[in-house]
Structures are given as C-alpha cells and as structure tokens.
Amino acid sequence: MCHLKRKFWQYFWRCALVIVLALAFEGWSVESAQALLRQHHDFPGVLRYHSQVSILDEKGYSWQVLLFKQNYQSVTPDLRLRLVGFPGVFEIAHPQALEIKTTEGKLLSASDVYAVTAPAPNVGEYNLTNVLAKLPTTDALKLYVPISAEKPLVLNIPNTVVTEWQWLVTEID
Fold first, then answer.
1. Residue 84 · residue 50 · CB < 8 Å
2. 72-113, pLDDT tens digit by residue?
C-alpha cells in the first residue's frame, strides 16, 4: 500500500509540473500587443473613447500608440494617431509624414500634426482622418516613424489593433 501511495504522489507531481510548464510556455506565445479601448472625460458629462496599446519597436523599446477622435464639433471628427517613445532615446523628425504600409504593400501617408511645435521630442501626432478608411480592417500594418538622423523606425501594428481602430471609428461615437 505504501508503494502505491508513493507512486501516486510521484505521478501527481509530474503531472503538476507538466501543467505548470505548459501554462508558462503558453503565456510566451500570446501576442505582445493587445489594444485597449479606454474612456476619458473631455469635459464634465462628455465621455470619449480612444484606443491605446504599447508596441515594441525592432530595438525592443516600448512605444505608446494612441488613436483618438478630435474636433467633435465638426461633421467628420479628425482621427489622430499619437506615438510616444521613451524620452531621450529617439527624437521624432518633424514635420515629416508618417508612412503606413499594408500587408499588400500599399503605402499611405499621414500628415504631421506637430509640424511646427511638438510637446516633446519623443512625441508625434498624425492625422489619420483620410487614411484609416483606406486601410484593410483585418490586416496588420507597419508604421514607418520618421526619426532624426536615422532611417525611419518601424512599428508593427498587429491585426487585432487595426480591427479595434476600425471599430472605434465606425461603432463608437
């Protein structure tokens, strides 16, 4: 009986170890960027929504990527994409446009909102009002961020984020 009890516990701990390892490795395969719709108060009584995600560039630095609507008084609100890099690492080259490449190779351009003055060297904001409608709703994108003294920095935007952007624009007022 004691021999069976010992075998049972050996089997139990091996199974537990396999489960823990499987869960740990499963966590590594999760997509690194999950967008998050958030709400904020523009002013008392008025809620607005924006999409916010943290994306790693090819060098491993984190960027905040924020899509939001601006100028709600207009018939068609402006869609803005704000990119915020880690301070002191990169300086965004103003007034250069942001280039957006689709998986089919289509290249689109978004104008620099901070062409004259930016709040900080690591912050860029681009007008996506005319661009977002031309983007596929389910495909990933590459953003070519113009930075000072180098070739553009590439941010890979997963298809889940692009889908959320489309949803924010079409479904949320």
1. no
2. 565 667 899 999 999 999 999 999 999 999 999 999 999 999
Whole-number mean pLDDT of the chain?
80
Total Cβ atoms within 10 A of residue 13: 10
- Residue 27's contacts (CB-CB under 8 Å, 6 or more residues apart) are none
Q: Which of 38, 79, 37, 31 is nearest to 56 (CA)?
A: 31
Terminal C-alpha separation, the chain:
69
User: Do residues 76 and 59 touch, judged by C-beta distance below 8 A?
Assistant: no
Cis peptide bond N-terminal to 95, omega within 30: yes
Q: What is the pTM of this model?
A: 0.73
Q: In terms of Cα–Cα distance, which of 154, 126, 142 is closest to 61?
A: 154
CA 86/CA 20 separation, integer angstroms: 34
Give 79's strand partners.
69
Rg, C-alpha atoms of the chain:
22
Helical ranges in the chain per DSSP H: 2-28, 159-171
pLDDT at site 29: 37
The greatest distance separating any two alpha carbons of the chain, rounded to the nearest whole angstrom, comes to: 82
